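Dear colleague,

Following up on Tuesday's group meeting, I ran the structure prediction for the two-component complex that the binding team flagged. I've pasted the input sequences exactly as they went in, so you can double-check that nothing got truncated or mislabelled along the way. The structure tokens for the whole assembly follow below. Feel free to forward this to whoever is handling the docking comparison.

Inputs:
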Amino acid sequence: MGESAYIPAASAVPEATVSPKVGARHSALVRVTHWITTFCFFALLVSGIELVISHPRFYWGETGNVLTPTLFKIPIPSSRALVPTGYGYVLPDQNGWSRALHFQAAWVLVLTGLLYTISLLFTGHLRKDLLPSKVDFSWRALSRTISDHMRFKRPSEAEAWSYNLLQRLTYLFVIFVLVPLEIWTGLAMSLAFVSAFPATVTLLGGQQSARTIHFFVSVFLVLFLLVHVLMIFVAGFWGRMRAMITGRAGTNMERT
Amino acid sequence: MRDVSRRKLITGGLVAGAGVLGLGAAARIAQKYGLVPPDSGGIYGPGETLTYAAQRLLTKHSLAREFSPSQISKRPVPNEMAPLNDAYKRLQAGGFADWRLSVNGMVDRPAAFSLAQLKSYPVRSQITQLACEEGWSYIAEWIGVPLSHVLNLVGVQQQARYVVYFSIEPDWWESIDMADALHPQTFLAYGLNGEELPVGNGGPLRLRLPRQVGYKSVKFITAMTVTDSLKGFGKGLGSAAPESGYAWYAGI
């Protein structure tokens, strides 16, 4: 199928096979930004875990340290002798590269996210694929989709071409709530940034509150990732992977 | 189809070319306006440069948040540190009477200041947060003299771009640009919460830089050099931090 496009006679092949309406599940821009985001997400996750290891204690308010009570502690060893973990050893310090990687990946993710968000407005991706349409959006439809998901039902053929209601709501929540909140709480921890924009941290209740919220949002983002990957397996891993890499939907292609 | 791919190829090529030219121009402009950090080489250079340039443009004159006396942490954390060396212990035994801060380099009148001299200058205080890169923090009242006051006394020369400062502890030195050096909240701090600055918090003299994380606020400082280039210091990355993998600029 893919090879025929490179044969000179390919122009004789009906347009249907290459027209975006039928052939492409994901546009090139969505595919490229998706994989850049995936790459950045893992960089941020690995470096973020390393940063937590250097101080696996969380607080609420402006300040918090080993001499103050915690909101909660993560019962893991630390890379700092300063932290009383109860473990008899200290892990090696990884914060240098972790901080550098975290901030560099954040820059790439923010710039990629901006490109994607701006493109949402111009390509119709937001209206066509993300906003629940009027017909779609009813509690009945929502509960049906949820129960389909709970029973790991394979998506119908129509769903191979677009996102279902639950998917739409989840993606909207990730794109417009979780990721912006993660960026905001990240910046609210920057001493220099909040010197220019103090409200970004005072609105959250303080720098340690920002750090704690940042942690919880990252937990939600990881949960999203796990469900997202699980659903890809339910829907058919190779078909969905091919769709996100080549742009062509898997299920129908096998029949044409 | 061929035309389409050719057009795509040409457009793509033009965009890529413009991108490379744009980046080149951006790099030259950034260099000219002092927006490139000394540790901009290496795989994390782009990120370090973007952060430093963005924060320098946004925060050049902004003031670190100050807090009310009621928000001061009950116990300012004395950070873990290596045992202090003999030179320090000798000065400590003498009550720090012989402690000197030498200031040299691109200045008109190089000088060495005793603690008594520094304390004779206008006393300033700030209730600010010390945040460590690890994630913990505390709020304290820092007492001292603004670094800009001392720099004015020695007369910083026109071409100066950075101030490099050294701890009495070997291999512990940092540097900041002139925007931070002349910033009103950058202190030579000798007091904490109304007392002498404790040894555990960097006493008798610590540089206090409230808009960057803790490791830039070097403890036990004895020397300072004003310069227009960081190439000749250590490995030329700006400070000791980048030599062990940490960023030179630590506003985040």
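The radius of gyration of chain A is 22 Å.

Cheers,
M.
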